[in-house]
Write a structure and sequence with these properties.
The complex is a heterodimer of chains A (351) and B (631).
Chain A (H helix, E strand, L loop, with lengths): L37 H16 L6 E5 L3 H4 L9 E4 L5 H11 L4 E7 H5 L3 H10 L3 E7 L2 E2 L5 E2 L22 H7 L4 E6 L3 H13 L3 E7 L15 H7 E10 L14 E5 L5 E6 L9 H13 L3 E8 L6 H5 L17 H9 L4
Parallel strand pairs in A: 1-2, 1-3, 3-4, 4-8, 7-8, 9-12
Antiparallel strand pairs in A: 5-6, 7-12, 9-11, 10-11
Helix pairs in contact in A: 1-7, 3-5, 6-9
Chain B lengths: L19 E2 L1 E9 L4 H14 L4 E6 L8 E9 L10 E6 L5 H7 E10 L14 E5 L1 H8 L3 H20 L3 H11 L4 H21 L5 E2 L9 E5 H12 L3 E4 L6 H14 L10 E4 L3 H14 L3 E5 L1 H17 L3 E7 L16 H5 L9 E3 L4 H18 L2 E7 H5 L1 E5 L14 E2 L1 H6 L17 E2 L10 E3 L13 H19 L6 E3 L7 E5 L3 H13 L5 E5 L1 E2 L3 H8 L4 E5 L5 H9 L7 E5 L8 H12 L8 H13 L1
Parallel strand pairs in B: 1-8, 2-5, 5-6, 6-7, 10-11, 10-12, 12-13, 13-15, 14-15, 17-18, 21-22, 21-24, 24-25
Antiparallel strand pairs in B: 2-4, 3-4, 9-16, 14-23, 20-22
Helix pairs in contact in B: 1-4, 1-5, 3-4, 3-6, 4-6, 7-8, 7-12, 9-10, 16-19
The chains are: A alpha/beta (351), B alpha/beta (631).
């Protein structure tokens, strides 16, 4: 994954966040993806979300697998450690890193090949463990780096660049996540920054595994007539079910919402997510109803988007495991090694 | 009640033979899942508490209930307790294996069997003595409930053995009291069953010439299996993240780590200073320890050969990105699924060079549960010092069998070696941080941990990178990094545990081994020396090999390399990693799944050392010679 340093130009007019940092402080190397790639828009949305949340850049941890999407961790928050792991196995590395240090902000970037084919198992189990991280699946329905093969999210009948229709059933990542007990499930579109940024912010603040499926067209291999992951097709078929507004803990709620149309959800750190129900009866905290809704829309040829499901009292891996407040990696040796006296006593149990 | 057939039940069988005190081998053949493991464990522990050097080897099936299982015990006052295939007494409790068991006992030996049913005529050998004890019959009479009848049969044979070979009844009772201190009814039943067997055997057979007598131990011993000791090593080394996928024979490493952490790392309110991640497979387990190691925690995963296969991709990543992590390989038998409940040293090559591309890994080879403890601690230090995967290469024999080992000791002055890690202050002093820069010339570059400082931030990648950690496809920049890794692994040669070397006067060659081959090899040395063929001995304990290993190989013209695998993997490693001349390394191999025996080593060494002197029937001749030596 090539990365080229970006020129840094900060003027006195640049907007600053609560930490006094500008957007540039959350950027990374120059993208080497194709011009117009949906992934670059997602990267921009991530930069925006980090900036708006005023997260300390060096306390973020970026992880990815292999593929076009996985390259993008080099393109944002360059002051954070990043780990470009192996194909489909980022969730395990993220789980281990998170186990060792519960206090950092974890963001994992993956693609549909990385998450739904080679890494399907790892994704499923990271969801089950409710690892505290934001997991972004940049979904373009195609293998880009190996030049145009269908992926596991390619829709039935969607055509390849050469005109061949896909004959295998797709895996819908949002339905999958819901079925596995995910505590935060969202779907968005790389071309809809307004929808995506609040979702990413809520995901970063969620206490658990925040799963965001982002439809992200591949301009080189999957943006043609007949593809169901093209810009044109997605714009036509996406249907926003619920829109999210994110209000950090310290901010006043500026907007007024008509009662009944908004569902406020308090996050672990005290921030609030406001879920605006576009479809009247939609309940984003009812897992089974959300699942049924997704299927229903799918039948109509639509793709439901928004912060689709949110479990309010989510307990992450550490909460379930009852690990100590100090990150495990920072525990002093004396608190870990029982010492000579304990060993001498223990030996008496093995006589 | 049947008194059996042939010469069954005849007085103190084999009467007239010289008494053999604290020097014989016996085994118990049972059906797994019937409770025999507790009776066998009891017998082992009684002998151990009598102060006699003893080993117990569990030869068990990959099954929960209903298949044949054996428990082999060897007592030896001289301390030679490697497995021997020569059994003086077999307790045959499983009719489905009678034929095999009867065939295996030494001529002049004894077979104790359940005489509730008669033995088939075909099973009668004229050269062994049959001791029929109607165990099932007695237990059915005495106990109610089928489960209790089955369970108590085991304690009854232990009672019979106590009468036959002199298990100290006071110690037997003491152990039963310890085990059933909270279950008085169980204690009563056990006492009753014990007496049933004991009284019957004493009345009908008396004591056999095979006798146990209390000894004053030459040191302070404990009885522990290697997986417990390894887990204890992880606790004492300060490991906080354990990730694993259950696999025989490694499972008990994590079971023990959990128990020990519950005891030592859990506060009254349940707060834990560790975490255990049960992964979905070994790929994930490896990924988790790589993630945790990268984050700066001491992390480990226990597995066996099939797990190493699946972990290889991550092992390569950890090697190339230079992430510390510790892998325990409790080796088992065979390729593919093989024989999961039998032992072998079959993973040496796959560990040394695990993963594609140019890789090479540090490994340590414990020979006993004692070393499992100390070398586990060493492994974590090596992993962090060299920022690379380190393998603790054990096996089923060490890992799952209880061994009599010296008490484990701890020195509170131990300080963990975290290796070169730049903290905030060190990073501040730098103009810029380059992750893979070798400043000291030892091949080890300093790393930075996530979350500490923006200045230490870098991008860890398994793709081609230069010494700064930046992506590269440049020939020279790529090669510079992988060449430094060679320097790093060369530095590790003298940091891994030194070989154990024993020299003998007038040595005619050298014997080389690793791991659990130690006990059999040391006994073989004695047997060979008694035949006028003393050999020097070297047990390697670390890979890559140090200068001392090379020097030992260089100073001998004839060398025997003992491997518990088919293809001589240690020999291959020695040829590959030292300058030794291949032709002078004679391969001694054992790979049937049982632990190595001294007899096998001698068997393989003798034809090389005495090629002409042996007549056609030499094998029988020197086996007879060996038994003479033993007496």
């Amino acid at each position: 994954m090539t990365s080229i340093a970006k020129p840094r130009i900060v003027t006195h007019k640049s907007e600053r966040n609560a930490l006094g940092l500008t957007r540039l402080d959350y950027e990374g190397g120059m993208s080497t993806l194709c011009a117009g790639c949906g992934h670059d828009s997602i990267t921009a949305a991530i930069v925006q979300a980090f900036f708006e949340l005023a997260l300390p850049p060096h306390q973020a941890v970026k992880l990815s697998g292999i593929g076009c999407s996985s390259k993008t961790t080099a393109y944002f928050v360059s002051q954070a450690h990043g780990f470009n792991t192996v194909h489909g196995r980022m969730p395990a590395v993220a789980t281990g890193a998170n186990a060792a240090h519960k206090g950092l902000t974890y963001i994992g970037i993956s693609g549909d090949g990385d998450s739904l084919s080679i890494g399907l198992g790892q994704l499923c189990h990271a969801i089950r463990r409710n690892v505290n991280m934001l997991y972004v699946l940049e979904n373009n329905g195609v293998y880009g780096l190996t030049k145009g093969q269908f992926s596991a999210s390619s829709d039935l009948g969607s055509k390849s660049k050469k005109g061949e229709p896909n004959q295998e059933e797709p895996i819908d990542p949002a339905s999958l996540a819901l079925a596995l007990g995910a505590t935060f499930v969202a779907r968005s579109f790389s071309g809809d920054k307004e929808q995506l940024v609040p979702i990413l912010k809520a995901g970063l603040k969620h206490n658990g595994f925040a799963f965001v499926d982002v439809l992200s067209p591949c301009v080189t291999f999957n943006d043609h007539e007949g593809s169901t992951k093209s810009y044109t097709f997605i714009r036509k078929s996406k249907h926003e079910a619920v829109s999210a507004g994110f209000v950090p803990i310290k901010d006043e709620i500026a907007a007024q919402y008509a009662p009944g149309s908004v569902r406020p959800v308090t996050m672990h750190d005290g921030s609030t997510v406001y879920l605006h129900k576009v479809d009247g009866s939609y309940d984003p905290t009812d897992r089974h109803a959300v699942y049924a809704y997704l299927k229903e829309r799918q039948e109509k040829g639509e793709v439901a988007t928004g912060l689709l499901y949110l479990k309010e009292d989510s307990l992450d891996l550490h909460a379930r495991e009852k690990t100590t407040a100090t990150p495990l990696r920072d525990l002093p040796f004396a608190s870990l090694c029982p010492g000579k006296g304990a060993l001498d006593a223990l030996m008496d149990e093995y006589l | 009640m049947s008194s059996g057939n042939g010469n069954a039940g005849g007085g103190s069988g084999g009467g007239g033979e010289r008494s053999r005190v604290n020097d014989f081998a016996f085994k118990v053949a049972t059906v797994n899942g019937t409770g025999s493991a507790s009776a066998n464990g009891l017998i082992l522990k009684v002998v151990y508490r009598m102060g006699i050097p003893v080993s117990g080897k569990n030869v068990f099936p990959s099954n929960i209930q209903g298949l044949p299982t054996w428990y082999e015990l060897r007592v030896n006052k001289a301390g030679h307790v490697a497995r021997t295939p020569k059994f003086d007494l077999i307790v045959a409790m499983n009719p489905t294996t009678y034929a095999k068991d009867v065939a295996e006992v030494q001529a002049g030996g004894w077979i104790m069997y359940d005489s509730s049913w008669p033995l088939a005529k075909a099973l009668l050998r004229p050269d062994v003595t049959y001791l029929g004890v109607p165990l099932a019959h007695m237990c059915v009479e005495r106990f109610t409930g089928s489960r209790e009848r089955i369970l108590m049969k085991n304690i009854a044979y232990a009672g019979a053995l106590a009468a036959l070979i002199g298990l100290d009844m006071e110690i037997v009772k003491q152990l039963l009291d310890e085990t059933y201190s909270r279950k008085k009814s169980m204690l009563e039943s056990n006492y009753t069953a014990l007496a049933l067997g004991y009284d019957y055997a004493r009345e009908h057979f008396g004591a056999l010439p095979l006798q146990l007598e209390k000894m004053e131990p030459d040191g302070e011993y404990i009885m522990m299996d290697g997986n417990t000791a390894a887990a204890l090593g992880c606790v004492y080394a300060g490991a906080t993240v354990g990730a694993w996928y259950p696999i025989t024979p490694a499972t008990s490493v994590m079971d023990n780590f959990r128990d020990l952490c519950k005891k030592y790392r859990t506060d009254a309110d349940g707060t834990k200073r560790f975490t255990i991640l049960q992964a979905e497979d070994e790929l994930a387990a490896a990924g988790m320890v790589v993630g945790a190691g990268w984050m700066g925690a001491r992390a480990f995963t226990p597995t066996a050969g099939p797990g190493i296969d699946l972990m290889s991709e991550f092992i390569g990543l950890a090697y190339y990105t230079e992430v510390p992590c510790v892998f325990f390989d409790i080796q088992r038998t065979g390729p593919s699924t093989g024989m999961p409940t039998r032992t072998q040293q079959g993973d040496l090559l796959s560990i040394a060079y695990a993963s594609h591309g140019d890789t090479k890994h540090i490994a340590v080879f414990p020979a006993s549960p004692e070393e499992c403890f100390y070398l586990s601690v060493a492994a974590f230090d090596l992993a962090e010092r060299f920022q690379t995967p380190v393998f603790v290469v054990s096996d089923l024999d060490i890992g799952m069998n209880d061994w009599r080992i010296p008490r484990l000791r701890w020195d509170d002055s131990y300080a963990w070696d975290r290796g070169k890690v730049f903290g905030e202050a060190e990073l501040e002093k730098l103009k810029s941080f380059s992750r893979y820069l070798d400043v000291d010339g030892d091949g080890i570059a300093a790393r930075s941990l996530p979350g500490v400082s923006a200045k230490g931030a870098y991008f860890t990648r398994g793709s081609g990178h230069d010494k700064h950690g930046r992506y590269t496809e440049d020939e020279d920049a790529y090669q510079e990094v992988v060449d430094r890794l060679v320097i790093k692994l060369d530095t590790a040669r003298e940091a891994v545990p030194a070989p154990v070397i024993v020299r003998q006067d007038g040595a005619v060659g050298g014997l080389v081994c690793l791991g659990s081959s130690d006990a059999a090899c040391r006994e073989a040395l004695d047997l060979l020396a008694a035949r006028g063929l003393p050999l020097d001995f070297m047990r390697v304990r670390g890979f890559p090999f140090s200068a001392a290993v090379s020097a030992f190989l260089a100073e001998h013209d004839t060398l025997f390399v003992v491997d518990q695998n088919r293809d001589g993997q240690l020999r291959t490693l020695l040829v590959n990693d030292t300058e030794v001349e291949k032709a002078k390394l004679h391969s001694v191999r054992h790979y049937s799944g049982t632990p190595l025996s001294a007899e096998h080593v001698v068997d393989e060494v003798l034809p090389v050392l005495q090629p002409v002197a042996e007549p056609a029937g030499h094998r029988l001749a020197y086996v007879a010679g060996l038994s003479l030596l033993k007496e």
